[in-house]
Amino acid sequence: MTTTNILLLLFSLLIAGGLSYFQYFYKAKNKSKIGWFLAFLRFLSIFGILLLLINPILTKNTLETVKTPLPIVVDNSSSISFLNANEKALELYKKIESNSALQEKFEVQLYRFSDDFEPATTLDFKGVQTNIDAVSKNLKSIYKNTIYPTVLISDGNQTSGTDYVYSFDATNKVYPLAVGDTTTFLDFKINQLNVNKYAFHKNKFPVEAFLHYSGTKSITATFIISQGKTVYSQQSIAFSASKKTATVSLLLPADKIGLQLFKATISSKEKEKNQYNNTKNFAVEVLDQKTKIALVSAISHPDLGALKRAIESNVQRKVTIVKPNDIKSLQDYTILILYQPTAEFKTIFDTSKAAGINTFIITGNNTDFNFLNQQQDNLDFKMSAQKEEYLSVFDTQFNLFAVENIGFENFPPLQNAFGTVTTKGAISVLLSSKIRTIETNAPLLAFAENQRKRVAYLLGENSWKWRLQTHIDNQSFEKYDLFIDKIVQFLASNNSKKSLVVAHESFYNSGEAIEITAQYFNKNYEFDEKARLTIAVTNTKTKQTTNYDLLKGNNSYKVNLDGLESGSYSFSVKELNSRTTYSSRFEILDFDIEKQFINPDVEKLTQLASQTQGKIYFPDQINGLIKTLLENEDYKAIQKNSVTKTPLIDWIWLLILISILLATEWLVRKYNGLL
């Protein structure tokens, strides 16, 4: 309390005493005993009110003992029970947790982890993933700026997250308790399968398998890839004590359209303790999306080669450069690119309209704009014979399809005839034109869709310079080629805008996150934030159906279907207000990553202990671990002085006391007839 507050309190005592004396003695005619009592009540109430007005700060010092935290972190994943180590892990956990000496020295805190990290209330060893990296991140967050040891009860087999060996703080010792049988058994394992999720019909897709052998004798295993009863590949692979790994690379035919399930298996004549890790199922969705494109031009120009290379960067696109009079039939083509059309293109325009083929029209200095006005009704051209260079302006509101601004404003100008271009009907403009610094508000790259026929317009030649500029900026043509592929993809599909768009995979591995997202658009094709979306998921084998609500996120609705068993599922997403539906299916492959191990990863746990200057222990060394923790002089309890400052105005009981004093004074005066 400050000197000023002390002086104010003394002054308050004088004021309270003076007012009480003046009220009950100086003015009083009869100085009775009751007057002394009333004066005392008045003195206390006035002094209490003045105390509240002064509001002194009361300081309280408290000494408290702070123990070093000791997190006991237990692996709660199913791999512990698969290695028959769940009972031992539980026994170790209870022995450390119940040790009174440890409780006295440390603030023992219990956690469990699998795919997540949380306080350990119970242990069931049913986690579907093991993320030891999450342990380090959470401990760093909980115990900031604190020196503490960690006891990690685990088999060390991590199935998700980054490498945990170097993720723990090197200044805080980690003492791994390795659970599981460390005896080496003969075992074959498919460590990893690399395969693309999608393949194209009548192509071949690559499969890469990484195989591992645990054992000491020389042995030959058989590696098979099959689909049902059909064997696509079978080969013998020799292993020995010095050759424990093998890589198999092969090509499989994509001869059936749709989701195709395959099985990879490695086996031998020897008996294995764990045969679950001998097999891995994988799936490939075979798509039929070949697109044949005719690039029609009556002239030679660098744009033609640039367009062909950009489009064919997608292996599913095939571009043929032809002259207008050389095309005999349009049946083989999905898209027509009409480069600087003139009257020679009349037959192609007439035939494409009849066939309903989507077109990409590119204009330039050789274009006959009067002819072009006659052949289409999306844009009206009033052009002169003068040439002009047009820069591009990217429209961020364009929503016909997703496209990235790859730096269009910095691209070289396109050359076209000078004049005015007027849009007619519903035209979506991706790029508008600019002459030097003046924006014309006329389209440079635009799209139209009428009666399920789609047309794209690029109004200017020399787009080959755009591709070159992209390479200069990014040391790669990839961004420009992807931009052109987006245009081709738009033209390759006749699907009109959908109000309900659902995103999902065709297959998932068991234990993976299964998230389905959906977007619902109103009649103006704007995201509807008031939509009500539900999903019905049906197991095609058991016919059991479960319903879920999709929760609104950032510009999408989401549902998490984690926990579904392996098998085939059909589902239907419905918007309840409009009754719009979307139906599809997905497959959950039978694969439990936690059953891939036969031993604890002692090597990794040893590296972790060494990196943090700790030590690895085994279940029969638990007493040694406890002794090490108790004898370590680095972990001592400290006394911490806690200072608490409380303003007197926060003391509600003082206000209550003042109220009681004033009420008592009033009642006494009333009873004695002094009012």
Major sheet: 9 strands, mixed
Unreliable runs: none
Strand order of the largest sheet: 16-15-17-18-23-22-21-19-20
Report, as a whole number of angstroms, the end-to-end distance.
40 Å
Helix share bin: 25-40%
How many helices? The count is: 14
Estimated share of beta-strand residues:
35-45%
Number of strand segments: 33
Which architecture of the largest domain would the CATH scheme give at its second level? 3-Layer(aba) Sandwich
Average of the residue pLDDT scores: 86
Query: What is the count of structural domains?
Result: 5
CATH topology call of the largest domain:
Rossmann fold
CATH class of the largest domain: Alpha Beta
How would you classify the helix and strand content by structural class? alpha/beta
The radius of gyration over CA amounts to: 40 Å
